[in-house]
Amino acid sequence: MKNNEFNDQVQLQSRLERIGHKIIILSGKGGVGKSTISVNLAVSLMLEGKRVGLLDVDIHGPSIPTMLGLEKEILRADEDGLFPIELGDLKVMSIGFLLKNQDEAVIWRGPMKMGAIKQFLQDVAWGDLDYLIIDSPPGTGDEPLSVCQLIGGLDGAVVVTTPQKVAAVNVRKSVNFCRQLKVPVIGIVENMSGFACPKCGQVTPILREGGGRRIAADMKTPFLGAIPIDPEIALSGDEGRPFIHHYAASPTAGIMREIIKPILALDRTGHPRPNGKTTSPTEEKK
Predict the structure, then answer these.
(1) How far is CA 220 from CA 60, 175, 215, 244, in A?
(2) Where residue 33 sits, what CATH number does that domain have?
(3) In angstroms, rounded to a whole number, what is the distance separating the alpha carbons of residues 125 and 144?
(4) 286 or 47, which is more confident?
(5) Beta bridge partners of 91
(6) What's the structural domain count of the chain?
(7) Confidence check: pLDDT of 137 > 60
(8) Which residue in 139, 132, 90 sits closest to 113, CA to CA?
(9) So what's the pLDDT on residue 69?
(10) If 242 and its partner were Cys, which of 43, 83, 101, 128 is the partner (CB 3.0–4.6 Å)?
């Protein structure tokens, strides 16, 4: 058993060493649009010329395949590993690709979820990546904890909230979760920050304003930006088309591009980056 655990750890580290930066996207509460942020941040980085992986560790409610129009994709595998689904220079992995149908419920306890996340990191042929964006379910439970423990060296976390108090107070829990696990907090994103009129562009506050900004100031954490409710974001998610790509000229897309600047800056901090071109699982072992 100890020998198997050692071999697993070696394989896990060999995969992770080829990934320059690992970023987890957290939210203290459900329904704040965390997966939408994850998808658009990952695609934004790809559009900046980066090699990006997007890992969906929301075991019970995987939405990344739907938001990228990949529901019908089937994973390929050989004796050396699983191949992530590729969308341009973006590589995507989700338990949604392993379900027989999209209505299937995943009824797992903690150890099984940790095992699946370990497989996503250890057995998936990510190849050389500049960034791995990890979309976790809300809260501070099994999935984000498993990611932090397995990777052991996350570059940082982006915490997503909505403006109203009932959501923003949970940001404190997510920030404290990161601090206890020694994961740097890159910053807080306030999603659904007002309604952007599709006709005139004026932003009207519907929910309480500024909750994310106030919590960021209280917690001495960077505030990355406020994204308004934009009807095109919801439409893009339903149609499986990344908003940041298909509505690149919109003001909201401009806000998203500003949000990734601290993440792009990680490539200038002296952290190691993988070298070489993306390879197949077989090539990885050569």
Answers:
(1) 33, 10, 8, 29
(2) 3.40.50.300
(3) 21
(4) 47
(5) 53, 86
(6) 1
(7) yes
(8) 139
(9) 95
(10) 43
Cα(273)–Cα(17) distance, rounded to whole angstroms?
9
HEC secondary structure over 30-46 = CCCCHHHHHHHHHHHHH
**Residue 57 is assigned to a structural domain of this protein:** yes
d(CA 72, CA 170): 35
Mean pLDDT, rounded, for 43-51: 95
Largest Cα–Cα distance in the chain?
Answer: 64
pLDDT digits (tens, 9 = 90+) for 198-234: 777 677 777 766 788 888 999 999 999 999 988 899 9
Of the ranges 72-81, 95-104, 238-247, 270-279, the best mean pLDDT one:
238-247
Predicted TM-score (pTM) of the model is 0.88
Residue 203 exposed, middle or buried by CB count within 10 Å (0-12, 13-18, 19+) = middle
160 near 189, Cβ under 8 Å? yes
- Report if residue 209 sits inside a domain: yes
Q: Which domain holds residue 196?
A: 2-267
Sign (positive/negative) of CA torsion 112, 118, 91, 155?
Answer: positive
What single letter denotes the amino acid at residue 149? Q
Give the type of residue at 107: I
Residue 131: is it exposed, middle or buried by C-beta count within 10 angstroms (0-12/13-18/19+)?
Answer: buried
CA 40 to chain centre: 9
The verdict on residue 281 lying in a domain is no
Which ranges of the chain does DSSP label H, i.e. alpha helix? 2-16, 34-47, 64-67, 110-122, 142-151, 165-180, 211-218, 231-239, 243-246, 251-259, 261-264, 281-284
